[in-house]
Amino acid sequence: MNLLVVGMSHRTAGMSLLEQVALIGSEAADVLAELVAQPYVDEAVILSTCNRVEVYAAVSAFHGGLADIGGVLAKRAGRPVHEIAAQFYVHYEVDAVRHAFRVASGLDSMVVGEAQILGQLRDAYGVAGDQGTAGRLLHELMQQALRVGKRVHAETGIDRAGQSVVSAALAYGQGATGPVEHRPALVIGAGAMGALSLATLKRSGAGPLFVTNRSHTRAERLAELHGATAVPFAELSSLLERVDVVVSATASPEPVLDAALVAGAGRPLLVLDLALPRDVAPGVGDLPGVTLVDIELLSESLSTTADAEERAAEDIVVAEVETFLTWLRGADVAPTVAALRARADEVVGAELRRLAQRCPEMTDEHRAEVAHSIHRIVQRLLHQPTVRVRQLAAAPGGEAYAQALRELFDLQIPTSEINPAAAGEVHP
């Protein structure tokens, strides 16, 4: 089984395509089921955020898995796969592990170092676990990726000053409209991004703060946590007349703010659209007095210059990738060791049965003593080779030793239990 990542992000695809592929609410469960129903995909996890949609998969073949995943994503976009294939990024085996660890560490984020991706990855893994689409390989990858992400944030200053998509968008917007301190602000949406938006606005000195959501109960809970006022969603129009800043981060498949609604506010507004699909309809940014910052604009403005903290984080990722590969190689040799011990048990069992037929005069006590002695001899003979092959398998190229054992003892192991990439199979 092999690791494959296929996805698209703000770096490779336009925002309109990302909106078409993005998962909303319970859609992830259906797409996961569709993925693992494909011929070459055995496990799948989908990560969908405001700037990326990517599939982590355990596949039985590279090209077949790529075609299966690409087909599902293209179907979701409503376009032929050849039209969007150039906007995919593809990572295989060791590159897939490295990508997962970089994503969890915030190194691949629009705002480098943002910590929200850890929660998003944890949620994506949780959904896959609930749907039964994460097996042994992806369970291990996701658990280790989350651990690596936590380690990077704990050991480096990559997340200094609590930088996030929200803080970056707010900083960009304030460059055009001035500080938000003491200015009334509204957050639309009571999910994780809505909570982060309220916390960021509060830290920036904005106020009074308001929050609205289609579920008023959720809005009330969030408002209580951040010292804000929850307002029924039906009062959104009148609320826009009372605020200077609007942050919209819902999971709505349709825009929640259109030109007519915003124009009716009759006042200058700084609008931050942090949703995917977008919450703000086309034309809002063209209204007089409205400054609109969305994910597309933000991705164009952010610098990608590496600094010392990023380099330190990359060093951690490199070391952790090698640790994961060591586990993977050890996992690959385990079926060979198990098959060798099973073969030894078969041989011992056959010889003991032959002995019982040739020496019927032996007592049960004698037979038990002979069986015990033979088993001990065989186990002692196998102990050192099996320990050593596990050690050798942990090194690069170590799968060759397990392959030698299979050939020497004619061990028949299902190919699904052996990692073909580790065995030397090369894919472009």
* CATH top level label of the largest domain: Alpha Beta
According to DSSP, the number of beta strands is: 10
The CATH homologous superfamily of the largest domain corresponds to Glutamyl-tRNA reductase, N-terminal domain
Q: What would you say the CATH architecture of the largest domain is? A: 2-Layer Sandwich
Describe the overall structure.
This is Glutamyl-tRNA reductase. GO terms for molecular function: glutamyl-tRNA reductase activity. Pathway: Porphyrin-containing compound metabolism; protoporphyrin-IX biosynthesis; 5-aminolevulinate from L-glutamyl-tRNA(Glu): step 1/2. Keywords: NADP, Oxidoreductase, Porphyrin biosynthesis. It contains 16 helices and ten strands. By secondary structure, the chain is an alpha/beta fold. The chain has three domains: 2-161, Glutamyl-tRNA reductase, N-terminal domain (Beta Polymerase, domain 2, 2-Layer Sandwich); 164-301, NAD(P)-binding Rossmann-like Domain (Rossmann fold); 333-417, no CATH class. The chain has a six-stranded parallel sheet. A four-stranded antiparallel sheet has the order 2-3-1-4, sandwiched between helices. The longest helix is centred in the C-terminal third of the chain and has 51 residues, at 308-358. The two termini are 17 Å apart. 40% of the residues are buried.
